[in-house]
Write a structure and sequence with these properties.
Chains A, B: Keywords: Cytoplasmic vesicle, Membrane, Protein transport, SH3 domain, Transport. Two copies of one chain form a homodimer. Helices cover 58% and strands 8% of the residues of chain A. The first copy, chain A, is elongated and about 110 Å long. The longest helix of chain A has 60 residues. By secondary structure, chain A is mainly α. Chains A and B meet through helix 9, helix 10 and helix 12 of A and helix 8, helix 9 and helix 11 of B.
Chain lengths: 475, 475
Amino acid sequence: SPAAGYPFPLAPYGRSYQPNQGSDDDWDESSTVADEPGALGSSYPDYELSLSSRGGHMAGHLHPPGSSAKSSATVSRNLNRFSTFVKSGGEAFVLGEASGFVKDGDKLCVVLGPRGPEWQENPYPFQCSIEDPTKQTKFKGMKSYIAYKLVPSHTRQQVHRRYKHFDWLYGRLAEKFPVISVPHLPEKQATGRFEEDFISKRRKGLAWWMDHMCSHPVLAQCDAFQHFLTCPSTDEKAWKQGKRKAEKDEMVGANFFLTISVPTGPGAGLDLQEVESQVDGFKAFTKKMDESTLQLNHTANEFARKQVTGFKKEYQKVGHSFKCLSQAFELDQQAFSAGLNQAIAFTAEAYDAIGDLFADQPRQDLDAMMDLLALYQGHLANFPDIVHVQKGALTKVKESKRHVEEGKMELQKAEGIQERCNIISFATLAEINHFHKICVRDFKSQMQHFLQQQILFFQKVTQKLEEALHKYNSV
Amino acid sequence: SPAAGYPFPLAPYGRSYQPNQGSDDDWDESSTVADEPGALGSSYPDYELSLSSRGGHMAGHLHPPGSSAKSSATVSRNLNRFSTFVKSGGEAFVLGEASGFVKDGDKLCVVLGPRGPEWQENPYPFQCSIEDPTKQTKFKGMKSYIAYKLVPSHTRQQVHRRYKHFDWLYGRLAEKFPVISVPHLPEKQATGRFEEDFISKRRKGLAWWMDHMCSHPVLAQCDAFQHFLTCPSTDEKAWKQGKRKAEKDEMVGANFFLTISVPTGPGAGLDLQEVESQVDGFKAFTKKMDESTLQLNHTANEFARKQVTGFKKEYQKVGHSFKCLSQAFELDQQAFSAGLNQAIAFTAEAYDAIGDLFADQPRQDLDAMMDLLALYQGHLANFPDIVHVQKGALTKVKESKRHVEEGKMELQKAEGIQERCNIISFATLAEINHFHKICVRDFKSQMQHFLQQQILFFQKVTQKLEEALHKYNSV
């Protein structure tokens, strides 16, 4: 039940919510609160801030924008710290209450890599493009939606999916994998869904999401995702079957942890304090990452806005003033200045063009930066819960050791708790490892892209000025 | 006497005023109204708008800044259109009332060049540098002033002059030469005269003034200027002698026009309508020039301000945000990102440096542009009166023709009027010619300088970014 002052019940860790499961009814996006501040039917160049993704992608929740999201997230940490551990099934697992048969194909393997535990590589890595957003209609044109073409590289069979399919998939994954940071989808939006800029931006967000899905060894290979990627769009029956199969997955909650297979034998055990230390360090890292990505996103948004408005305006005012000057020289009857007025007029055009270059530049560099930051803010919003499941397990181990010393628990039972905590630790450390790798990969690539685009931009500006300077040679 | 609503008596065309002549008393600059808006004790980066120079350099007048200057100038055209012609001595000359002996050395020759009448070239062209502004004191340190070192290229003897000497010279020239556009001095200023930025800017303004003085065949060779340039600074007696000699010059007013020597013989006469047409065309040109240089000056001022504040701020905020991001990566314990955090930190510094480059850039390019525009606004403020003297003469010719037709004037007298108007026309056209030449010379040079500096700037920015991009190669 909600705590006083916090109006929204928080879903279990998986953040699933009834509407994603079960009913195949047309889910009308317009009934969802538009939770993107400033994005309602917005036309370019209003840049979206991904503030609401910080609160996590609360699929289906009436999730108010801005500060409430933040305070809800804070409350979730304070009140549900324990509950997340419980609700994810982590506690039940650690206490030995889970049991079931795990098929080989369902096993998630953690191996020991050069930098410690990591998810076993996907033996069949693949990618999937998101292309060609097209407006489709249903009910004789009464209902419209956007469909995207997906082309997975391992099947090369294109399928078409709409946002609600992505959203369904997200719900399944977030529910199933409490130790994994499932990337957040781009925001829902009630209005302006058919605006070209919105569609373009959403497509990019989905492409990033897809890249992170395919890059994760566990997520890439999971059944629900494969169903999403491969079920032919025309076969509604097959879709529903796969959907229900995923929704009936028994290896969820406490049972999920049974599927995790970890290294065994000498040298494979994890030192408790070492794990705690690493997890605490990671917590500090994600906190700082969260603050700095938020700040950078905000700065990028502002910088983009300034270029589109202020910078463009300043350079074009200079151009306009040069134009007036050239027009004055045209009035020179003695034609002393025939070449000069043309050169000055050309210079005026150069500055006007530079203004346009500034206005167009954010699309080339800052937009991509902000898309990436939005995706990472989603991940960073996931980690507190992942960390809490781990900490809950560690706490259980400490408690069990104390109970043994106090004679309240049998040693064998405590050892079982430690062993099962060990499994969670391997998984968490593997996930941390994965996050670091993908973080470095993405930020290196993004910074390079950003700088390359900035360099190209300033080179273009320089070139315009050099062309203008050249005109004075013949004066 | 002042017209109703216009509080200031307008001086005769020469704009001289008693205090510049006669008394050698220490003229306390602080008794002059500080007529530079926003420049009172201002420290960088408050850019001065040379608005008040539009009203002309009213030496010694209590000349309020801004709009009053503008309305005074307008009134002077309306009410004194006739008076300028009269007060300059132009009317008296045209009517044949001037007489006197003109020494060869005092003759100002107009010749026929490829583009029509022009001032005869100075056979001994020279330049003069303005260097080394130094604070001097008098009265045992009770009074301070800035002295500049002048080194004329034809004497190579350095002399020291202070602002009041320049001001005295200006007064002499403006009074003597009604057909010539005497460049205006940089503004007087009551406070902040010893600020480094002010001194530096004033020195540049004086250098521009000096360049235009030396570039003008008539001004360069005139006695008062030569006295100013060559009289040894230590010889106070010689200075006063030269000063009084200049102030006693008899070839002023109507007599001045006697010194103008024009081409004679067949093909040397000027067609009245042609002259009128050229002068009208020039009037349209100067009007448009005046508007556009004012606008460009204003735009340049704003552009400079924006670079020093807004642009710098935006780039440095980006740098700061990148810095925070790199600090987050430093918290990555597994040192996945050792190279990355350093590359991002380097990128942060690059953007910080780019912010500083923007802030420093106006000193490199826009400042020089604004200095030039201020000088030209002074010239453009002179031309209405020059044009009016010409038009007054043309009017007299038309009147005289009518009088002859009406039998009110003897033909011989009318012919004398035409001949003397012809002299004024030659001088005016020569001055117009000179202005066009110097205009093209200066604006070509200034635009080239501006563009070269802008190119250098953007190249520097690009280089910083390329250095930063390079850092990612080793990540």
